[in-house]
Amino acid sequence: MSGGVDSSVAAFLMKEQGFECAGATMKLFSKDDIGASGESRCCSVDDVADARSVAARIGIPHFVFNFSDDFREKVIAHFVRSYLDGETPNPCIDCNKYLKFEKFLQRAKELYYDHIVTGHYAVIEKDSASGRFILKKGEDRTKDQSYVLYGMTQEQLEHTVLPLGTLKKSEVREIAEAQGFLNAKKHESQDICFVPDGRYAEFIERNTGVRNKPGNFVGTDGEMIARHQGIVRYTIGQRKKLGISLREPLFVCAKNAEDNTVVLGKEERLFSKALIANAVNLIACDSIKKPLRVKAKTRYRQPEQWATAEQTGPDELRVEFDEPLRAIAPGQAVVMYDGDTVVGGGTIRRAGNDI
């Protein structure tokens, strides 16, 4: 129970169905972890109080689990390292993978609870034909979170319940209001929880104690254009706030950590037809034995596009899109769908038209 309306309603629905429940809030970081001036709605004293209030209202015990060391190692450290390597990580996926559905599930089992319940908008079912647990999109397509859950294992899916998967967000708020939950209209933050001000470069400097190293903006032919203020300050596809004057619009097409350069080019250079991904997790099947037609996306809010996926190694995927995609960024996840069902996904390592 994060203190938000979704997990609160999820807890209420499970209690209403007659299950023996307990609420738990994960303490993931402190202000020292995110900087003395950091203000985040996540993991705050108010969030814990909100979760405890709802737990008391529905008549279940409430725990607080301190997972800050694991969060620092598995999520924050990986976030920092990925940016320094020129990638664009998705820490929400890492948090789900290592904290919510690994560490949290382990703690639940230690306390003799059979399942964990979260407020994610997605659906878990068991496929009678294959015997596998499958993950499907949530009914509310505007809130569907299946993209960030693609890393779940069969064991995690078996021991997880997602009661909001068949509900609309508006219905969830109506339930919360009807039950008198104080967080029924609580605002949802869209920022990364441990960088609430969105200033990634400054966060990384504080975390490492090292100032971001300036380098060169270069063109697609390698010619120097100007100086940049550190590769962590830029993202693939970025055009504005480059801090330089240009004769024509140029976009960030690549970031090279080895020589500390940021490649600028015209917008057409941002489009790629294929990508290679590793850290593969497949849900709907054990492996992809032959080229598979899927719909796939490379960012959370991106519409899915038709593609062909091949498993080119035990831990490698090649995904080729029917039409080129804009700004495919290493470090992000590619997630594949068969209709509403998540096939699986992986972490993008490189993209291009010749791979």
Can I get a quick summary?
By secondary structure, the protein is of the alpha+beta class. The protein is 26% helix and 28% strand.
Any overview of this molecule?
A hairpin with a 4-residue loop joins strand 7 and strand 8. The protein has 355 residues and is of the alpha+beta class. It has eight helices and 16 strands. The radius of gyration is 21 Å and the shape is globular. Helix 1 packs parallel to helix 3 and helix 4 packs antiparallel against helix 5. The N and C termini lie far apart (43 Å). The protein has three domains: 174 residues, HUPs (Rossmann fold, 3-Layer(aba) Sandwich); 54 residues, Adenine nucleotide alpha hydrolases-like domains (SH3 type barrels), CATH 2.30.30.280; 83 residues, Beta Barrel (Elongation Factor Tu (Ef-tu), domain 3).
